[in-house]
Amino acid sequence: MKDTTVFTSQELDTYFSSYVGMEGGNPAAAVWFCDSSPQRWTEPLRAPLLPRLAPHAWDAAFRAEHRDSMARWLSYQRIARIMAAARAEVLGRRLSDTDWKPYFEQELFSPDGAEFKLNLFPVPDQLDGVARWSTVFRGQPALLPKERYLDLCRFGGRFRFLARICACWQPKVVVCFGQRHTQDFIRAFGLGKTVADEWQLQPADLVMSLRVFRGDGTTWIICPALAGANGLNSDVLLNAFGKLLATSFGAARGDAPAARGTRRQPAPEDAGGHCCT
Question: I need a labelling partner for 92 at 20 to 30 A (CA). Which of 54, 74, 131, 138 fits?
Fold first, then answer.
């Protein structure tokens, strides 16, 4: 039965200001991946709205439950290919065409893995591929029109939560997918006063531009999306990006993408241990 509860802006803001709408993994990992929104809608709005205080992860139970569906998750497979290439680069191993597959099936987004996946906005852009946003959220004035929902995340607690957990966990690299969302990435992670560098990814004839920000020990790389005609959607590009990722945070110093990030001690005002929640 469909939940007919009408949620207030405050209730939704509190709910969104948490780990809800993130694939998760290991937030202590060196590498984070950030997309504009999740690929799958696994947390529909139901009363009572309970913020997710700890990140989700792809543990053994999750993999067993979704084993038959995972073959269709192309975007996640592309992230696995990036990570497999980064690991091979760091370890000085030859990368095979199939290294990504066991990484995807066994390691990606695992609780003690090498990466963490978050999203700017907690609800997928494409809810089911058929129904329109206005149809799905009919009767929820705080979510209509869609721009109201986006602004609730941008100027409410969601973006502040993203900035807080990033400052707390201090990943070495945050890979941001989708250059059309550049301003939202800048706003979410507080990069407005940081000067950006321009990098180029050119494994063959095609040149891709990357915007790179650095601050407080973290590097943010804003790159093309994982799909689309101009996206990171070929094996050659994904492998090349994985190699660049490995070198971008000091592979020469032994900071392998399999290593965890460093968790900062809570600030005095967060003495209760709430720095990362």
Answer: 74
Confidence check: pLDDT of 15 > 80: yes
CATH number of 9-252: 3.40.470
- pTM (predicted TM-score): 0.91
Secondary element (H or E) of residue 14: helix 9-16
Helix (H, G, I), strand (E, B) or coil at 148: helix
Which helix (DSSP H) or strand (DSSP E) does residue 35 occupy?
strand 31-35
The CA distance from 16 to 10, in Å, is 10
Residue that has been written with the tokens 């696994």 in this structure: 42
Question: Whose structure tokens read 């531009």?
Answer: 209
Percentage above 90 pLDDT, the chain: 78
Across the range 65-81, mean pLDDT stands at 96
* Whole-number Cα distances in Å, 82 to 115, 219, 244: 11, 17, 10
